[in-house]
Automatic annotation (TrEMBL):
Protein keywords: Cobalt, Metal-binding
Entries under Pfam families matching the protein: CbiK (PF06180)
GO MF, one example: sirohydrochlorin cobaltochelatase activity
Active-site residues from the entry: H178
SUPFAM superfamilies per UniProt: Chelatase
Coiled coil: none
The keyword Zinc is annotated on this UniProt entry: no
Protein name, per record: Sirohydrochlorin cobaltochelatase
Organism expressing this protein natively: uncultured Dysgonomonas sp
């Protein structure tokens, strides 16, 4: 009986918030939960790059934009790539990984932390970040992670609009993502599908280390009959992969297939609209908390139905 009463109380408490975000979020103002003496910080998390030119235009640009949106909040930065951290360290440039940055925030007296990663998909980098957060969560009163660029179907729609803005239907646009080795690589295929579904049949998505691979993209490209290609990284920064894999390997392979190739080596992070989408994710998480699946299942046990 006590369990049923507790679940009914949970149902009554959470019900008003189920309409937002398809039943996945409840309203919860991050800053209003703070008490006198509490300190808030934002941790921007990036994969990182060893290339200073693209870093200034992407990582630094997004960080600066977040500072302007949250001028009263301390902003810190972390890189997830241990290889990049090591290489930068050898040059005398020190970057912390997320776990180190979070422990430092705790040591510095911060009680509330908002985290926003410039990650593209909800893949292994986000999984790693979430594990870091799980490890230090007891150290903070409130800690939240914003969603990656592509998370909800609405995110895909917005990104599709951004990618196709001011493009020529007689030119093939090939967007090259990093890709990943597990099932989350399907998110790139979802973007490709949505581009086509929205009528942008001259846009093609491929990945360097996942699906769709170069051959998958090439088959669609050949079927389109288009001969001029604009080759662009679908990555936050235009670093190592863009300058080597895309600008050399992919470009050469396409030219060998008879295509005329123009390179646009700009990271997604250079696009103000993409920057704004990340900031919208950060702001959303500052006003909402995700409802855990077990909390939702406890309600379903009583109601017998999915809440919307």
């Amino acid at each position: 009986m006590k369990k049923i009463l507790a679940t009914i109380l949970l149902y009554i408490t959470v019900l008003p918030f189920f309409a937002h975000g398809g039943g996945n979020y409840e309203h919860s103002d991050f800053f209003k939960t703070m008490k006198p003496g509490d300190k808030a910080a934002i941790l921007m998390v990036h994969f990182g790059t060893t290339h200073a030119d693209t870093r200034e235009l992407t990582i630094d640009a997004l960080n600066d934009k977040v500072r302007k949106e949250f001028p009263e909040v301390e902003l810190r930065e972390a890189y997830t790539s241990r290889i990049i951290i090591k290489r930068l360290g050898e040059r005398g440039i020190n970057k912390q990984n997320p776990l180190e940055a979070l422990k430092q925030l705790h040591a510095d007296g911060y009680t509330h932390v908002l985290i926003q990663a410039s990650t593209i998909i909800d893949g292994v980098e986000m999984e790693s970040l979430e594990k870091n957060v799980d490890e230090v969560e007891p150290l903070f009163k409130d800690i939240r992670i914003g969603n990656p660029l592509l998370y909800t179907p609405e995110d895909y729609e917005k990104v599709t609009e951004i990618l196709t803005d001011d493009t020529d239907s007689q030119i093939a646009y090939v967007w090259v993502g990093h890709g990943t080795y597990d099932a989350t690589t399907a998110q790139y295929a979802m973007l490709d599908y949505m581009l086509k579904a929205k009528g942008h049949k001259n846009h093609f998505v491929g990945t360097i280390e996942g699906y769709p691979a170069f051959e998958d993209m090439l088959a669609q490209l050949k079927a389109s009959g288009l001969k001029k290609v604009v080759l662009t990284p679908f990555m936050f920064v235009a670093g190592e992969h863009a300058k080597n894999d895309i600008a050399e390997d992919w470009k050469n392979d396409l030219e060998e297939e008879g295509f005329t190739v123009e390179l646009q080596l700009k990271g997604l992070g250079e696009n103000p609209a993409i920057q704004d989408l990340y900031i919208s994710h950060l702001k959303f998480k500052a006003g909402h908390r995700k409802i855990g699946i077990m909390k939702k299942k406890a309600i379903y046990e009583v109601t017998g139905e999915v809440m919307h």
